[in-house]
TrEMBL record:
Keywords: Cell membrane, Heme biosynthesis, Membrane, Transferase, Transmembrane, Transmembrane helix. It catalyses: heme b + (2E,6E)-farnesyl diphosphate + H2O = Fe(II)-heme o + diphosphate. GO terms for biological process: heme O biosynthetic process. It is found in: Cell membrane. It comes from Candidatus Nitrosopelagicus brevis. It comes from the Archaea. Its EC number is 2.5.1.141. One of its GO terms (molecular function) is protoheme IX farnesyltransferase activity. The chain crosses the membrane at residues 21-40, 46-66, 100-117, 123-142, 154-174, 180-203, 224-245, 257-277, 284-305. The lineage of its organism: Archaea, Nitrososphaerota. Its main location: membrane. This is Protoheme IX farnesyltransferase. It is a multi-pass membrane protein.
Length: 309
């Protein structure tokens, strides 16, 4: 049956937001909220869930849409991105995408601050602050300011990756926000280099074509593979930190369930990164990249399960 034009348009705008990416971003907010709720025994209202999850989805979708709009010139050239809605003219003029992204940004900020009415005033204020920070860091600092200029673009531009986790936590409680909340957001931040540098090693020719200085598109394949392995080891070592955290009553927040999950999944990632070092081929880096998202999801599942035990 012929798909209606409206249905095609909705699917195209949905595709523009890069849903595969914000599914995981929303999942980190969800996982952080469940973990905080279990540790401090706090009930999360339906209204708070709705504002938090929809807000993070809208915020991440907005960031992805507005960075797609900003990068429409290089996306048209890169093999990996030239089929996207803006370069392929399935959304035309491109300003329609920009306006869509701006509306989503407004909705996401309203949702985040709205948590002031469902949890409490300062919870909502902090959620709003983290949302504005996430949008600004990803759109302005990463995409506009650093992506085409600095080999460390994903470092300063990567803090936004932790914003959903901070929003998920602050939506539930401000107790432990700057230690346990920050650690969970830090799991996402420290995961980014392995995640993206494995991908950019795989697509190095694409990035060289558009002169985007991703570190592993600029360094030699051999050095890039070593950098990826080093960031993977750093990520795996950091992933064990939650096991040593305690509440202010000295209660450990995690048990061996989380510890063994983090170690087992970490060993797999280190082994994959060792494969990239031994054979810095496009295939090895692609496999490491494809495993990176499930790996992060497994860590957040372990946090949720262990905090419920
Ligand atoms: C500065 C930070 C980041 C950069 C530069 C980055 C870059 C990328 C790129 C270029 C892709 C491939 C997209 C495509 O070809 O369609 C990708 C995929 C993805 N990213 Fe990231 N990313 C970053 C942070 C994050 C964060 C924080 C998350 C979630 C917590 C995330 C989740 C994903 C997911 C789920 C995919 C799809 C993976 C797959 O296809 O298996 N990314 N990312
Ligand atoms: C709360 C909030 C708003 C948080 C925002 C966090 C966020 C959207 C992170 C996504 C980062 C990301 C996937 C960048 C894509 O890089 P790229 O544009 O270089 O990828 P591309 O080459 O595929 O276009």
């Amino acid at each position: 049956m012929q798909e209606t034009t409206t249905k095609i348009k909705i699917k195209t705008y949905y595709e523009l937001t890069k849903p595969k990416i914000w599914y995981l971003l929303v999942f980190t907010a969800f996982g952080t909220a469940i973990t905080a709720s279990n540790i401090y025994n706090i009930e999360i209202s339906i209204a708070t869930w709705a504002l938090m999850l929809f807000g993070v989805a809208a915020g991440s979708a907005s960031a992805n849409t507005l960075t797609n709009y900003h990068d429409r010139d290089i996306d048209e050239v890169m093999e990996r991105t030239k089929g996207r809605p803006i370069p392929s003219k399935r959304i035309f003029p491109a300003e329609k995408a920009r306006d869509f992204g701006l509306v989503l940004a407004g909705i996401s900020i309203a949702c985040a601050f709205g948590i002031a009415f469902t949890t409490s005033f300062w919870n909502g204020m902090w959620c709003g602050i983290f949302m504005v920070f996430g949008l600004a860091d990803n759109i302005l600092i990463y995409s506009h300011a650093l992506k085409r200029k600095s080999q460390l673009n994903i470092i300063l531009g990567g803090f936004s990756g932790g914003a959903p986790a901070m929003i998920g936590y602050a939506a539930v409680t401000l107790t432990g926000l700057w230690d346990f909340g920050l650690i969970m957001a830090g799991l996402v931040f420290i995961w980014i280099p392995m995640h993206i540098w494995a991908l950019t090693l795989h697509f190095r020719d694409d990035y060289q074509k558009v002169k985007v200085p991703m570190l592993t598109a600029v360094l030699s394949e051999k050095t890039s593979a070593r950098v990826i392995a080093a960031t993977t080891v750093m990520m795996v070592v950091f992933s064990i930190v939650p096991f040593f955290l305690t509440t202010d009553t000295g209660e450990p927040v995690m048990s061996e369930v989380y510890l063994y999950t983090a170690i087992a999944s970490g060993v797999l990632m280190v082994a994959l990164s060792a494969w990239v070092v031994s054979k810095p081929t496009e295939k090895a880096s692609w496999v490491l990249f494809k495993f990176s998202s499930p790996y992060l999801a497994v860590l957040f599942i372990a946090l949720m399960v262990d905090s419920a035990l």
